[in-house]
Design goal:
about 475 residues; alpha/beta; SH3 type barrels; Rossmann fold; N-(1-d-carboxylethyl)-l-norvaline Dehydrogenase, domain 2; 3 domains; 12-stranded mixed sheet; 6-stranded mixed sheet; 18 helices; about 40% helix; globular; chromosome; nucleosome binding; Cytokine-like nuclear factor N-PAC
Amino acid sequence: MATVHLRIGDLVWGKLGRYPPWPGKVVSPPKDLKKPRGKKCHFVKFFGTEDHAWIKVEQLKPYHPHKEEMIKINKGKRFQQAVDAVEDFLKKKEKQGGKEQSSEGKGDSKGKKTPTKPLKILEEDDEDLSALKDPSEKPVQDDPHFHHFLLSQTEKPASSMEPISKRLKIVEEDTRSTSIQAADSTAINGSITPTDKRIGFLGLGLMGSGIVSNLLKMGHVVTVWNRTVEKCDLFIQEGARLGRTPAEVVSMCDITFSCVSDPKAARDLVLGPSGVLQGIRPGKCYVEMSTVDPETITELSQVISSRGGRFLEAPVAGSQQVSNEGMLVILAAGDRTVYEDCSSCFQAMGKTSFFLGEVGNAARMMLILNMVQGSFMATIAEGLTLAQATGQSQHTFLDILSQGQMASTFVDQKCQNILQGNFKPDYYLKHIQKDLRLAISMGDTANHPTPMAAAANEVYKRAKALDQSDNDMSAVYRAYIH
């Protein structure tokens, strides 16, 4: 949102954290309430909920110019009640000749002073911001698609658009990539219309588990398989069906997704005994979500197509937490019609998806992204240890970093976990090292140097030698302190 100049009493739309813009009024904060440091913000009272929050100026919009725009986006009952409360406020103000009366701390009809209710101050990282959503809907933590609310409000590129369904927009860019974003208020609020196609899912690791959970929550019919069958139990309890082999899952389903650890696992799943290839029939769709090299993707596409199957690669950018929240970024390439058939599934598991053209392009883009992320993580770990080695406070280093241009949730979470000694895997260290290795090999094939990635790869290899493979990628920190 653009920065605006506001005064006490102005009506606004305020956006707090991951939640939708909500009608409110700029008010004076209590005298004993300190303004957040380092933030240009206003104190806002929300209509309908009576909650208050400090809102950054860039997350505020004037009420009247954007009223119609916001009403089109949000159709929730609680939201409509909040808008009605604004209109009632305006009518009362008009009757009073434009003067506003405050009931807070005023006397009652008998002259007694009415105590002011304590303010509930919301913050961006609050777990419970349920006031800013319709109470008839599922709790936000169980409904990640509520977070899609602003996708249709973000600045759109100069591009042409073509609808593929009531709830989607496909955005064509100069790069010939395509993105799917939630564009209908019902989809945005979590009420996705699931495809009537039968969905299969192979691989219930860190990423796959969150994906399947969100597919089920959004009403998809899902059949699951995992090498360790016990991992399927939780999803069976949530309504999934169990497939005994990859071949059986593919034969039972219209679209089968797979998400496994590396190229070998992806090949074995397709080409091995009772593998995917044995269940492929003409018209069956296979979607490879594993992060692998372009050569593996090309091979799998060819063997699936040779049996009349339809193939799409769709690796995902994110982590276990992002997967659980249904906020992955999906990179797809291959059969465009399969991409379109997967639209409700991609909405369930991610905040946006991109179609990148021919088979292999998604693998290439995914490796580049993970190469950058892995190298960045190693550099952050190097900075933390250098700070300690030179007598600087690591906590102060993080505080300064969080106020600068590199501030991000990723940096904050990883650094906090490092300082707490918490290396519970959100993205396995062994997998980011695998991605670096594959990216370096891809660079060699293209005759393009990757010296930064190569240096980072050596640090991760040292961390693996220190038995950090099954820890989070942030455990690369330990390569610098041993």
